[in-house]
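Protein data sheet
==================
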Amino acid sequence: MAHTKAKSTTKLGRDSQSKRLGIKIFGGSLVKCGQIIIRQRGTKFFPGENVRRGNDDTLYAIANGIVAFKKIGYRMFNGNSKTKQVVSVKIQSPKPKVQNKDQAAKNTEFNQKQKIEAEMKEAKNRNTKSKIISEEQPPTKSMPTKKEEKK
């Protein structure tokens, strides 16, 4: 039996696909909770504040904020000093929206109109009169009867 296959076969062509490793979100960029910051094999970068390490050494954010990279010096067990790169996410506090007095008044009026419309729709669905409908509609005159018409 032959040890090599017949013609038109090749021993090449078994290269694996690239794993797309590296930094996905750079320093100073905004990151959302759960987003991957770095894909790596081994721990070239270490997790810092608000960052966790996955099973495949992937670093991901556990809070919304801004990515920050820094180098930290440390001593190994034999006394040698070494530096390691740490990735952290600084939480960014949301800024309160400032409104003008006119804008705030318009918003409250708009909200009140929406509430009134919603209550009117509910009343129509229930076939009952709501407080607002009874207040807004003027009393209607009843149709005159035949006796009243003759007078």
